[in-house]
Amino acid sequence: MTNQGNNRLSDSILYPFANAGHLARNPPVVIESGEGVYLTDSTGKRYIDGQAGLWNVNVGHGRPEVKEAIKAQLDRISYYTIFGGTTNMPSVELAELLCRLTEPEGMVRAFFSSGGSEAVEAAFKLVRQYWRLRGEATRTKIISLKRGYHGVTLGALSANGITPNREYFEPLLPGFVQVETPHLYGNPYTDDHEELGRICADMLEREIQYQGPNTVAAFIAEPVQGAGGVIVPPPNYWPRVREICDRYDILLIADEVVTGFGRLGTMMGSRHWGVKPDIMTFAKGINSGYVPLGATMMNAKVAEVFLTSDTAQFSPKAFAHGNTYAGHPLACAAALASLKIVEDEKLSENAGRVGAYFLQRLKDVQSRNKIIADVRGQGLMIGVELANPETGQPFDISLGVGSRISDHCREKGVIIRNLADIFIISPPFILETGHVDEMVETFEEAVVSSA
Q1: Does domain 67-344 have CATH number 3.40.640.10?
Q2: DSSP states of 185-250 as a string?
Q3: pLDDT tens sequence across 327-354
Q4: pTM recorded for the entire structure
Q5: In this model, does residue 61 exceed pLDDT 80?
Q6: Which fold has domain 2-59+346-450?
Q7: What's residue 286's pLDDT?
Q8: Looking at the chain, which residues constitute the CATH 3.40.640.10 domain(s)?
Q9: Dist CA 250 CA 277 (whole Å)
Q10: How far apart are alpha carbons 443 and 201 in whole angstroms?
């Protein structure tokens, strides 16, 4: 065990996506408590949480409404399954709420799981069984985007388009294909946003034609790509994708694990682009991370093939999938309380308003600092990318420029996540412009000191 002041490293934990050698020299900060947008470590130092835990503490830390909902449910029953002819009321009420919140997208049924990767896994199994029940068993392939992040379980990872996530685990599952992502910054095709949307949508269509439309089950994408670098597609991209999927009768899956429930300034990320998917996957903001939970939702077109008048307990039309903790009553109770806060306090609107202010403040910083190559985002989902001003290329990763900036911010009381030289900003939706000012000033100070 290593201790450096507040920092503590346990030899008993294998940390996710972390270099053990780096952690030995830089033990993780012990976060002891949180309130609103703030975190406090074990020495009493306070930080602004610029990443909302991990994209997920949308209503803020320590909300009494959520804690009370969990406690009240805990006093009734902590867990019971929704398998085998039993259920629990929080899962029933949450499914009804989710259908109401996604009514504009046409969702009619919710399937619960334990988190985002599991929600995506469920979506893939759902579409494959859907096509078998439709009598089109050749439709098995899933198309996704390069730099897309859909999780790290084996099926989700097979759709994941981030190379470092994939390379240690190949060969991955067959039947997964990635196509080019519509990323304006640094793409080799065009500087015109609308033209790029057309080009990348056409690439999807050509891939469908190449694979054979009768072999493609679904296309999956995030409304705004998250861990791939906060990639905001052109406005015409998602509508064109919907048209293409309709043309070839391919199911469209919107991975809303990050964007769902308000992060882009609209309740659903798909709604920002005016598109109705066939399937939507949720986690993270579904209950602001208070208890692990995921959900996969489907429209009537998908749901109807699983419905039957057969009264037998087991049927070929039953969805042949499930997790022990699906519909966990504590997680669902937390979701009901969290989503009530999102609605009552109009937090999606606040995310849009404060996010626009945040984006402009960062663009102002970019104009004064040549190592900032790009600032992009939508709502409270913002990416800042560095580049060597002399070459226009990314810095050599061994220089650790992004890490130095992130470390400086943390030292000054602002936690901002960096993936090498791309910064991902995804704070709680209760963020105010005063918090933004403090975060931006700290970030610019760190950039200047590290240039």
Answers
A1: yes
A2: TT-SS-S-HHHHHHHHHHHHHHHHHHH-GGGEEEEEE-SSB-TTT-BPPPTTHHHHHHHHHHHTT-
A3: 999 999 999 999 999 999 999 999 999 9
A4: 0.96
A5: yes
A6: Aspartate Aminotransferase, domain 1 (3.90.1150)
A7: 98
A8: 67-344
A9: 11
A10: 36
